[in-house]
Amino acid sequence: MVKKKFTYFVSYSLLSISIIIPTRPYLSTYLNRILDFQKRYETKQDLKNIKTLLIQYKKKSGSFPPEHRFVVWFKNHSEEKFRFKFPLDRWGNPIKYQIIDKDKHCQLESAGKDGVFGNNDDIKIK
After folding, report:
1. Strand, coil or helix: 90
2. DSSP classification of residue 117
3. How far apart are CA 39 and CA 115, in angstroms?
4. Which one of 19, 44, 77, 124 has the lowest number of neighbouring Cβ atoms within 10 Å?
5. Is 108 within 8 Å of 124 (Cβ atoms)?
6. Can you give the pLDDT of all 126 residues of the chain as single tens digits?
7. Contact assessment for residue 71 and residue 94, using Cβ atoms and an 8 Å cutoff
8. How many helices (H) and strands (E) does the chain have?
């Protein structure tokens, strides 16, 4: 409930600011930073929620879903909790899923705003 209120607050704030932007060019940069922060926050929350579902699945089945079946697993187990039916981050880029340590752990990763894995704007949940 708190997350929804925060999202609504940010959305309404951004709408209010967007009305002023044409008269204040510097606000455009500020608005983009706020949007990026919100997308980063929401992507991190999505990754945490997916990780929770993966752990629950492992407890029931004994193992994580295979990496090559992640998309199918996601579609079957997301239960309308996520914005997308396909595992995408808030910038619309695919989420990377890896099994680590012979099925003991898994990692989820977003490439971040630039859409390129392996640099500083990536978001990882181990």
Report:
1. coil
2. S
3. 13
4. 19
5. yes
6. 455 566 666 666 666 655 555 556 666 777 788 888 888 999 999 899 899 989 999 999 999 999 999 888 888 877 666 666 678 888 888 999 999 887 788 999 999 888 889 888 899 988
7. no
8. 3, 3
- Does the global pTM surpass 0.90? no
Q: Return the beta strands (E) in the chain as ranges.
A: 96-100, 105-110, 123-125
Q: Domain 2-125: give its CATH code.
A: 3.30.700.10
User: For 74-114, where are the E strands, in sequence order?
Assistant: 96-100, 105-110
Q: State phi, psi for 20 to the nearest 5 degrees.
A: -85, -25
